[in-house]
């Protein structure tokens, strides 16, 4: 018995310790940092003894404060940016859902022989470097590309002014959808694969047409898959910064860009931490909601 | 049923095309004899030559390789242990610790590790900091894959081994490990791919003076876009293609586990 | 097959470690740096001639590695994020102010840099380092307006005032053909100067005015940009750009070299502008202060200092360099301003954390609206 307990500790301890040290501790640190004063020259003001800081020309502020949170809530500006991020995340999720569903259904209904190949085909683009996938859209949406010329000539015919496709919210949306589409396809497919075709046959026998069969039988059953896919898309998009940075215009900043600026630009670590905490809370609430939905579905005997 | 499938095909094919056309554009223009990624001028391997003569890029590739190999080794060992422990002992804490880094936006992990390295550990940012950061988020992936594999197995074989008097270590070495090896290898390959490709976390935890591949690409994209970027992209795609196919051969369920 | 994978894995790791050790192409942070004959330079983009570097390497029998930043904020942020091991930095005045007050710099050993006498005394007594304990002037640039002479004169627009980038009546003729610097301090300073205030005015009311001015003009601007405006001006896509004098010089050279039908001019606006004096300083964490001192002395030689100006068009505080600088550069009032224009230039000073936070919020608003 003793040896079994020893084994248990030996096996579970190393990863636990590693993660406690390099995941939990940093997260707690970030929470604490959001309550500190910013250093006079960037970084942080000390927690307890201001003498050394004063000697270096610091402001003499030390300890913990709510000032950063007050700053965050004092202007509607930051709420706007959060709203924008939520909007892009929602739009991305919905578009991904619409695009992913047919693919997932197709794969689920295919014969086993082809299924693996089709899944692989979905995963492969995802496996290429994230930046490459964004860069590809820089090329396609760039003002000198064939696609741009095409769109603009159509617009010209209709009497509109030419538009810049790149460096716009549209480009950002295309980027987020493109990068996250496989994340929606895979969970959906995993779910759809488990559906019993017998139910569909029964519905058909009872006179339901194609649309009713889908809406009344397939869709409700697929909801858990829809929720996991949505969570896998929504949450990363919420914290995104590279896509707006590369494909977006100056006004297309999202939370992630703001956070990055605080750490690598303005050197306002407390504010950067506050923003990160707010983002974390947003993510947790979305995750919580998704889980609650999934559970209530399960409970209602789906 | 047949008509049903036709509609599905019609809806699904554009999506597949959507997924692939941009990448094909990148690859095609990497051979284009023109600085602008606009029209096809002629075939050339110039950009590849330039790439191989680019010292910074080669150094970045070397650094990324070292980081990816080390991080994936570490993550595979720790992740396999985690996967085993979670499956066998029905732990409550470890799953949360391992899976949350995957679920959270990467920027949060990057930023918190930056703070941690600087304030608490007083660690100069460099290769070590990146390796630690990559390992942290890869552990979860390996754990998921290993656990999924274990869940699909019949536990009675372990009991049988125990009844026959095998020590836990013997059971692991002679029975468990060989059985989960495909999952472990797939996990290692996934970690390697994730590490080579990672941008966000590397962005925050890297030091100065040491080029890393995705960051190099990012700098090139932001400052001077030339088809050299296409060339390195094509090469990277080739690399990850091979790795993913390998991982898929080893453990087909690995990719779906995410 | 599975054992084979593990084996090949370990072999890969072994190989990369071995190539790492033997290729010696420097992975920065091992403590045996002292044996490496390397000078680590952290400098602005495009702020030194490769020929100069190579000549120095020959002279000192050492190697120079360079890293770059395109903004003082970037320099400070990277240093704050723990970048260590740099021997020499080239910060602008206000960033240097920060570094001195933080105690991040090494004091200079003036006995090792006799060429210090070459510097114009007018540049020596800076507000931040009055006795030059830490810094030696390197070069200066002025943040001003560069423009496509032919296009702008044809449109009848003023070329001597910030109004061209802030007033909608002018902007609407050049919509989408203007860029401004993606720098909080620089853009705000330009707006403040245009409004008649000092560039380092910290009155919040004035900042809000400047913000309103900027937001009003923003729809006409193509982008906020720190780097590619050089190319875009030289190619003719942009007609006006807010940027640094040495970048404008390069754009002008590029346009001439590629035989364009237009020329690029750059002018200090009559309301005044920001002067950035960049100095060489030694960072405390550098491993080879001796090499750094030699480098500073080397760069203070007239010929070497002139090389930078001839290449990049940056202003030069080194009197010994004058004979070596191309005459047309000396004659350019935007690079070597006369006394009257010089009086209208100001150097930025660092701001405290409350002001920084306020500026950050203003900047976010500017970007968002």
Give keywords.
heterotrimer; A: 302 residues; mainly alpha; MetI-like fold; 2 domains; globular; B: 258 residues; 77% helix; 0% strand
List the helices and strands and how they pair.
The complex is a heterotrimer of chains A (302), B (258) and C (369).
Chain A: H1 2-33, H2 51-55, H3 67-73, H4 76-109, H5 112-127, H6 130-141, H7 146-157, H8 169-193, H9 197-205, H10 210-238, H11 242-247, H12 255-266, H13 269-299
Chain B: H1 2-29, H2 46-52, H3 55-89, H4 93-103, H5 106-119, H6 127-151, H7 156-163, H8 168-197, H9 200-205, H10 213-223, H11 228-250
Helix pairs in contact in B: 1-11, 2-11, 3-6, 3-8, 4-6, 6-8, 7-8, 8-11
Chain C: H1 2-23, E1 38-44, H2 50-60, E2 63-69, H3 72-80, E3 88-89, H4 93-102, E4 105-106, H5 121-124, E5 135-148, H6 149-154, H7 163-166, H8 168-171, E6 178-180, H9 184-194, H10 204-217, E7 223-224, H11 229-235, E8 240-244, H12 245-257, E9 264-267, E10 273-283, H13 289-299, H14 302-312, H15 327-330, H16 339-343, E11 345-346, H17 353-368
Parallel strand pairs in C: 1-2, 1-3, 6-7, 6-8, 10-11
Antiparallel strand pairs in C: 3-10, 4-10, 5-8, 5-9, 5-10
């Amino acid at each position: 018995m003793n040896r079994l307990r020893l084994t248990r500790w030996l096996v579970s301890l190393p990863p636990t310790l590693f993660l406690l040290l390099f995941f939990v501790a940093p997260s707690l640190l970030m929470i604490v940092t959001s309550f500190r004063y910013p250093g006079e020259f960037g970084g942080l003001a000390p927690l307890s003894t201001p003498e050394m800081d004063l000697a270096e020309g610091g402001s003499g502020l030390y300890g913990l404060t709510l000032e950063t949170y007050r700053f965050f809530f004092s202007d509607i500006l930051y709420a706007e940016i959060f709203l924008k991020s939520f909007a892009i995340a929602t739009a991305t999720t919905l578009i991904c859902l619409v695009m992913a569903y047919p693919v997932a259904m197709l794969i689920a209904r295919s014969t086993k022989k082809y299924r693996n190949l089709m899944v692989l085909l979905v995963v492969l683009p995802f496996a290429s470097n994230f930046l490459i996938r964004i860069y590809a859209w820089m090329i396609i949406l760039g003002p000198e590309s064939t696609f741009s010329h095409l769109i603009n000539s159509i617009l010209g015919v209709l009497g509109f002014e030419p538009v810049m496709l790149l460096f716009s919210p549209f480009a950002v949306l295309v980027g987020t959808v493109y990068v996250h589409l496989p994340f929606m396809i895979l969970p959906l497919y995993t779910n759809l694969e488990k559906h019993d075709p017998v139910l569909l046959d029964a519905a058909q026998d009872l006179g339901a047409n194609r649309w009713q069969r889908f809406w009344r039988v397939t869709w409700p059953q697929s909801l858990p898959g829809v929720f996991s896919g949505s969570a896998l898309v929504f949450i990363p998009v919420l914290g995104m910064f590279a896509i707006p940075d590369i494909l977006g215009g100056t006004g297309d900043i999202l939370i992630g860009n703001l956070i990055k600026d605080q750490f690598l630009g303005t050197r306002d670590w407390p504010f950067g931490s506050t923003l990160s905490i707010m983002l974390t809370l947003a993510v947790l609430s979305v995750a919580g909601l998704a889980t609650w939905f999934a559970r209530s579905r399960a409970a209602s005997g789906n | 049923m047949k008509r049903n499938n036709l509609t599905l095909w019609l809806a699904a094919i554009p999506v597949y095309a959507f997924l692939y056309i941009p990448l094909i554009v990148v690859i095609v223009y990497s051979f284009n004899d023109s600085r602008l990624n606009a029209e096809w001028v002629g075939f050339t391997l110039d950009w590849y030559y330039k790439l191989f003569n680019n010292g910074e890029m080669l150094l970045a590739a070397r650094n990324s390789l070292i980081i990816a190999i080390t991080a994936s080794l570490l993550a595979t060992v720790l992740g396999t242990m985690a996967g085993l422990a979670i499956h066998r002992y029905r732990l409550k804490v470890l799953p949360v610790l391992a899976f949350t880094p995957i679920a959270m936006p990467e920027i949060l992990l990057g930023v918190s590790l930056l703070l941690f390295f600087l304030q608490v550990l007083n660690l100069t940012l460099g290769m070590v900091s990146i390796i630690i950061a990559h390992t942290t988020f890869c552990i979860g992936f390996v754990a998921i894959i290993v656990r999924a594999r274990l869940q699909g197995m019949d536990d009675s074989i372990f009991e049988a081994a125990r009844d026959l008097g095998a020590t836990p270590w013997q059971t692991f070495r002679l029975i468990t490990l060989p059985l989960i090896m495909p999952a472990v290898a797939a996990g290692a390959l996934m970690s390697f791919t994730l590490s080579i490709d990672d941008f966000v976390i590397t962005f925050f935890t890297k030091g100065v003076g040491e080029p890393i591949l995705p960051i190099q690409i990012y700098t090139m994209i932001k400052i001077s876009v030339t088809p050299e970027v296409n060339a390195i992209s094509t090469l990277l795609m080739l690399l990850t293609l091979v790795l993913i196919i390998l991982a898929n051969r080893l453990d087909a369920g690995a990719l779906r586990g995410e | 097959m599975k054992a084979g994978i593990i084996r090949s894995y370990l072999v890969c790791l072994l190989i990369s470690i071995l190539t790492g050790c033997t290729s010696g192409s420097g992975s920065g942070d091992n403590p045996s740096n002292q044996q490496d004959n390397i000078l680590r330079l952290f400098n602005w983009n495009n702020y030194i001639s490769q020929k100069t570097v190579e000549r120095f390497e020959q002279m000192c029998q050492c190697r120079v590695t360079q890293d770059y930043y395109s903004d003082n904020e970037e320099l400070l942020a990277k240093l704050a994020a723990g970048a260590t091991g740099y021997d020499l930095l080239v910060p602008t005045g206000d960033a240097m102010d920060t570094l001195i007050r933080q105690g991040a710099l090494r004091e200079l050993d003036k006995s090792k840099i006799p060429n210090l006498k070459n510097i114009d005394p007018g540049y020596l007594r800076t507000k931040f380092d009055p006795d030059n304990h830490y810094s030696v002037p390197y070069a200066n640039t002025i943040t001003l307006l560069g423009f496509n002479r032919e296009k702008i004169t044809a449109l009848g627009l003023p070329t001597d005032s910030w109004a061209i980038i802030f007033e909608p009546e002018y902007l609407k003729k050049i919509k989408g053909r203007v860029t401004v610097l993606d720098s909080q301090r620089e853009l705000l300073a330009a707006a403040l100067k245009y409004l008649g205030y000092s560039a380092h005015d910290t009155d919040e009311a004035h900042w809000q005015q400047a913000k309103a001015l900027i937001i009003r003009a923003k729809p006409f601007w193509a982008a906020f940009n720190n780097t590619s405006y050089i190319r875009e001006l030289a190619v003719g896509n942009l007609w006006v750009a807010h940027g640094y004098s040495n970048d404008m010089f390069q754009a002008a050279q590029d346009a001439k070299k590629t035989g364009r039908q237009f020329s690029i001019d750059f002018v200090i606006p009559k309301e005044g502008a920001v002067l950035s004096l960049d100095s060489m300083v030694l960072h405390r964490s550098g491993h080879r202060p001796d090499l750094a001192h030699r480098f500073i002395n080397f760069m203070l030689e007239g010929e070497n200092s002139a090389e930078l100006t001839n290449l990049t068009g940056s202003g030069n505080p080194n009197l010994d360099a004058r004979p070596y600088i191309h005459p047309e550069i000396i004659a350019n009032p935007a690079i070597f301003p006369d006394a009257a224009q010089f009086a209208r230039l100001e150097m930025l000073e660092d701001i405290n954390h409350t002001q920084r936070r306020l500026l950050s919020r203003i900047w976010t608003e500017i970007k968002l609206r």
